[in-house]
Amino acid sequence: MTRPPDPVRQSLQSAVRTRLRRALPPARDPVRSRPAAADGRDAEETWAVLRRERAPLLEAPTRAGGLELGLSIGSVVAEELGRAGLDGRYLAVALAVDAATSGEDPPEKLVGRLAGGDLSVALAGFESAGAPVRAAADGADLCLAGRLAVDAPGELAAAALLAPVALDGGGTALVLLDPATVPVREARHPSGAGGLATLDGVRCARESLLYRWDGAAGCPDEVLGRARVRQAAYLLGLAHGALVTAVRRATGRRQFGRPLREFQHVSFRLATGYVQVEALRAAVADAVWLADHGHPFGRRGTEVLAEAAETAVRVAGILMQVCGVRGLTGELDAHRYYLRIRRESGRLGRAAALWREAGRARLADAADARG
Q: Do residues 47 and 81 make contact, with C-beta atoms less than 8 angstroms apart?
């Protein structure tokens, strides 16, 4: 399918990208160390900048006071956050807005707070194939049981948690949890998360259920499909930022009297990383085009997210190789790309599971075509 250029959207993308690059904190020097607590400050500073730039309004529907510019603009925001190695809380807010406005009677007050940037949201529990938390009816409320992997408590501050929960009656739902009611403690998680929330006995109002879907359905369109495309754009940005950092490090680091990047085994790996990042950029743009022009995009979004996760991990490996042993520690600021890629490459599904999901969808489509 030919993707005709859209001059208006291209102009908007360029304007948003330029504005964000000027407004967001610049990428740090790859050889400068930083305090361990800087991530939390970066998260709050980044969100303050996004609020000032009215980023949450870009994708929000017009009925919520937003601009409804689509994924073509939202993906730019996600990519630029990743490129600078910054917190991706925007993705959680955009998902919450999509979920809250998916029904015929959206909660206007909540949507207004989300779109206006007054309520910050963080994703939790999206690492596993199924929902890690179960919700049982308890009168007018829901009683939750389970554990959620969350980002480091210091980075969340007053952010609400958006988590998937398995409903007793079947299906899965997105639940927005008040941070005041969710105890979060520091704990290591295999996904790279720095916190763990235990929800045994936590209650929430039914109004906190923003969106329901069939948990067994694969390659979703609409709300969850859009979230996957945004996540792929964020991973594209992280891969791009990691590659740029690797090039800078290879340029500044010298061995045997010449820059490291002049050695063929290093330059070849950097060139391979560049080709992979640009191929991913084209794939993300394809999924964005399908979504914004009303075509089915669930399978394409699933494939693109799997490709983005694998590409980001490969580029992170190149970065760590260029940085050497120091890159395996927090001594180099480049390490934050590795940590974010480790965390984000499994968010919304592991690459292998996503490829299997997309493969099953392709086989089903082929069977339907044969009649």
A: no
Tens of pLDDT, residue by residue over 8-44, are: 888 889 999 999 988 886 544 444 444 433 455 577 8
- The helix or strand, by DSSP H or E, that contains position 91, with its residue range, turns out to be helix 89-100
Which pTM does this prediction carry?
A: 0.92
What gap in Å lies between CA 290 and CA 302, rounded to an integer? 13
What is the bridge-based pairing of β-strands 195-198 and 202-205?
Answer: unpaired
Q: Position 268: which residue type?
A: F
Of 220, 223, 210, 148, which is closest to residue 184 (Cα–Cα)?
148
For residue 250, give the H/E element and its range.
helix 222-252
Among 47, 93, 91, 364, which residue's Cα sits nearest to residue 232?
A: 91
> Per residue in 272-291, pLDDT tens?
999 999 999 999 999 999 99
Alpha carbon separation from 238 to 6, 63, 163 (Å, rounded): 26, 33, 23
> Would the pLDDT of 74 be above 60?
yes
The tokens describing 235, both together, are 């991973």
| Pairing state between β 184-186 and 254-255 | unpaired
DSSP for residue 260: G
Q: Could you tell me how many helices (H) and strands (E) the chain has, helices first?
A: 11, 11
Buried b / exposed e along 274-295 (16+ C-beta atoms within 10 A):
bebbeebbebbbbbbbbbbeee
Q: Domains along the chain? A: 7-120 (1.10.540.10), 123-213 (2.40.110.10), 222-364 (1.20.140.10)
* Mean pLDDT within 244-264: 85
C-alpha–C-alpha distance, residues 207 and 176, integer Å: 9
Are the C-beta atoms of residues 172 and 166 closer than 8 Å to each other?
yes
Cα–Cα distance list, 319 to 49, 257, 258, 336 (Å): 28, 21, 19, 11
Instruction: Please check whether residue 120 is in contact with residue 279, taking contact to mean a CB–CB distance below 8 angstroms.
Output: no
